[in-house]
Amino acid sequence: MHSHPYYPLGLEIPDYQENENGLLNIVGTFSIGLAFSLCVILGLAIYRCPSMSYGDRLTILWFALSGILHCFFEGYFVTHHDRMGPAQDIFGQLWKEYAKSDSRYLVSDSFVVSIETITVFLWGPLCLYVAYLTTINHSLKHPLRVIICMAHLYGDTLYYATSLYDYYVNGISHSRPEVLYFWVYYFLMNFVWIVVPAYLLYNSICLISQAMKRLDSETGAKKRQ
């Protein structure tokens, strides 16, 4: 068994090796690549529709961000979950850093592997598709937003619930106790995928409701003629 900084203490992580690069190096490299990808996507969207509102631009960025993270970063986990311990590439080192807030990502936990697999193959591509639909102002953008936002809310709730169940019922902590790991990595970084989807869900439901009211009103007017 290798010594490591993860909780619960004594957790066995096969072939574990410490990260070769520092945190700023890893995060900086990842952030530059992610920012470049988002700038390209937003640039293409604005080129396609120069008059696009700032709200739509932010929505495209959100779904593009989610899609990229789901398909590539989380996709890496799905394909490498059984050999994360010795990983030294950028994604592998990032996952080992994040795993200080949730060690389940280093031991092929059945829940995280299952939910991440669904996220990678279903919600990731759908997020990118919705970013495209928003760019061309397609009528399907709101129904699909509702589906994705509900998926994010449900998945995040399960993610929190399973970890907290282990902590309060089974007495098992998967996160280090420091503020950075528990409150920033575990709580705050995931809570973003509750706050933003909740807002987008509310917005889309309101717009769909308004559209249905107009349709009902027009249909009723035609019947009375």
TrEMBL record:
UniProt membrane topology term: Multi-pass membrane protein
Alphabetic keyword roster: Isomerase, Lipid biosynthesis, Lipid metabolism, Membrane, Steroid biosynthesis, Steroid metabolism, Sterol biosynthesis, Sterol metabolism, Transmembrane, Transmembrane helix
InterPro entries: EBP, EXPERA
GO MF entries: C-8 sterol isomerase activity; cholestenol delta-isomerase activity; steroid Delta-isomerase activity
Segments traversing the membrane: 23-47, 59-78, 111-132, 144-162, 182-202
GO CC annotations, alphabetized: endoplasmic reticulum; membrane
Span of domain EXPERA: 55-201
Compartments where found: Membrane
One annotated GO biological process: sterol biosynthetic process
Family: Belongs to the EBP family.
Protein's name according to its UniProt entry: EBP domain protein, putative
